[in-house]
Amino acid sequence: MHAMFTGLVREVGTVTSMVDGRLVIAAPATAQGVQLGDSVAIDGVCLTVVACVDSTLSFDAVPETLARTALGTLDQGSRVNLEPALRAGDALGGHYVQGHVDGVGTVDSVAPEGDGRRVRFEAPAELLRYIVEKGSIAVQGTSLTVAAVDDTGFEVALIPHTLQATTLGELEPEQPVNLEADVLAKYVEKLLPR
Q1: Which of 45, 44, 51, 48 is nearest to 16 (CA)?
Q2: Cβ distance 30 to 13 under 8 Å?
Q3: In 3-state terms, what secondary structure has residue 30?
Q4: pLDDT interval class at 1 (50, 70, 90)
Q5: Of 130, 110, 108, 141, nearest to 181 (Cα)?
Q6: How far does CA 64 lie from the centroid of its chain?
Q7: CB proximity list for 152: less than 8 A, separation 6 or greater
Q8: φ, ψ for residue 136, nearest 5 deg
Q9: Among 181, 180, 96, which Cα is nearest to 131's?
Q10: Distance CA 42, CA 25 (A)
Q11: pLDDT tens figures, 117-141
């Protein structure tokens, strides 16, 4: 059974070290509720807890994961979005997120919009085909609604709560981000005749 997530970030943790793929994160709230072998989404990437000491969690990120996601850019002091995997009976809340990053996008622009911000991301073409206006997208593990889509990217509107409760308030142009398209779009494509 694959781990499931909702894209609702539970805690923003801080990377204490990242050496040879061993990622150590200070995450007091998350550490209280997880055990060895549990799955946790880190910026939207599902990894397994390999050590849990006091308020820190350790994970092993294999070279493939580092190459296919934005986790390779993390270093000491980086802030990351954390969500432990859903347990049976947990409310779904956001949308169904697998913790499997489909591609790495890039922040194109960040602009104030009322009390929030509007952010445009460039995204790979193979991912854009699954992104629809008013549909769901996970950016850095955060479930968001797509506000607009064009040929090279998409936009989201970030509300003040999201800016405060996740790392998305820190986004800057050129920054790489982990993207996971809504799994429902992939199922629909698979079921439709070619």
Answers
A1: 51
A2: yes
A3: helix
A4: low
A5: 130
A6: 17
A7: 122, 123, 128
A8: -100, 150
A9: 181
A10: 10
A11: 999 999 999 999 999 999 999 999 9
